[in-house]
Amino acid sequence: MATIVFYSVNKTARIATRRCLTLHSKWLAGDSPLSSIHSPTPAFLPGARWFSRGCSVRFMSHGTAGRASAGRIRRGALALSGAAAVTAAAAVAGLLANANHFQSAEMATKVPQVAEETETEEEGDILERCRGFMASPVTDVRVLQERKDEMSTRMEMLIMETQADFCKALEKVDGGKFKVDQWQRKEGGGGISCVMQDGKVFEKAGVNVSVVFGHLTEEAAKQMRSRGKVLKGKDGKLPFCAMGVSSVIHPKNPHIPTVHFNYRYFEIEEEDGSKQWWFGGGTDLTPVYINKEDAFHFHNTLKEACDKHHPQYYPDFKKWCDRYFHIKHRGETRGIGGIFFDDLDSPNQEGVFQFVKSCARTVVPCYLPIVYKHLNDNFTDEEKDWQQVRRGRYVEFNLVYDRGVKFGLATPGSRIESILMSLPLTARWEYMHEPAKGTQEAEMLDVLRNPKEWV
């Protein structure tokens, strides 16, 4: 008889699924990967496949489905302006580059109404939640408790939880530990950079949080106005608060895709005391070899998170993602996309926050099942070489086009290590490289040159 497996990586994943599992199977015995969450959670079985379907979960038997046969050699098979500011979000300059919108970008789809998600569970005590983080929050816990109902506090708690949930899920599959690096910005705020390098599964994995504040320069305000935002400061200054969580994961196995996500919040106080705010973010996947089942799972998980708030979100933000992560000089996208949005400030703050929370809570269920599925896949030297070439394209996009990285590198006093966290440990550039027709490498390149609809 097939063994039914349910894996709850942490509180985030349980909240997303518990609503639809109240009449289903009871918890199985096991140890929680989070010391602050005491609920039985069995380990993710490498041979099991667990796909989130929004308010439904498809359980599959523990067996060999989706895995490579033993010995089989597979061939082929972060101003807040840019989602790729995943690296810059952890660095002041990078986050400002995202926050200040220093380059033109189209506005997110405006919709008259967004269904607000009604949480059945309270967000909980601030101090208790902080015990599960990778480090103490950037903002003093006492301040967070005093301002627990303010959006800046709620968003900081969300990004800290997202960082902890994702890091601990990755540590569980890799067996390694993240180096936790806290940093401060003398102008105000700071961040937490978590990096795991040369692990068993991940060659380089970074998950960063930034919470910064201070005053925008007149130039920054001017460039935001050029994007349609009318901002009036006092004595040429605009107080601001910006925060975000960002991540890039580069696995060793070429059959496990690279993943990137970034979710951020920006708030500005104008001369009359009024505030302007907006959210931005996204999640995207960069496989080395195309796997249609993986692509469907990844996109469908994001789509269902979007559909809970507005049916137009996924199609619009999916197209935006394909356009943003486009390597113009190569005529190809960086990967198979996902969702990307910016300047999202409609119809109300609570509604947009709930949407961003839904997206942030997909980062584990949209990616970890894919990692486990390919964990034991064999690969050839040729497949590893193709991965290195594709990583070269990743570097090209981040250094040539990513708005956050470009601004961060050009800003004095930037935290360079955090800005460049998104780059892989190794990469390769071959002269005039073109895969042979009919190969899986050629199939991957065709997908990158002609973005597809996966759901």
Q: What does the model show?
A:
The protein has 455 residues and is an alpha+beta fold. It has 14 helices and eleven strands. The chain has helices spanning 11-18, 92-99, 126-130, 141-146, 151-174, 218-225, 292-307, 313-324, 349-360, 363-373, 381-400, 403-409, 416-419, 440-449; strands spanning 50-52, 57-59, 179-184, 189-197, 202-216, 238-251, 258-269, 275-286, 326-327, 332-333, 337-344. Strand 7 and strand 8 form a beta hairpin. Helix 7 packs antiparallel against helix 10 (363-373). Residues 1-121 have low confidence and may be disordered. Belongs to the aerobic coproporphyrinogen-III oxidase family. It catalyses: coproporphyrinogen III + O2 + 2 H(+) = protoporphyrinogen IX + 2 CO2 + 2 H2O. It is an enzyme of class 1 (oxidoreductase).
Number of domains: 1
Name of the CATH class: Alpha Beta
The CATH superfamily label reads: Coproporphyrinogen III oxidase, aerobic
**Tally of extended strands?**
11
Low-confidence stretches: 1-121
Main pleated sheet: 7 strands, antiparallel
Cross-sheet strand order for the largest sheet: 3-4-5-6-7-8-11
Helix content: 25-40%
CATH fold descriptor: oxygen-dependent coproporphyrinogen oxidase
> Which CATH architecture?
3-Layer(aba) Sandwich
What is the tally of helical segments? 14
Structural category: alpha+beta
For the record, give the distance between the C-alpha atoms at the N and C termini, rounded to a whole number: 32 Å
**What radius of gyration results from the CA coordinates?**
21 Å
Strand coverage percent? 15-25%
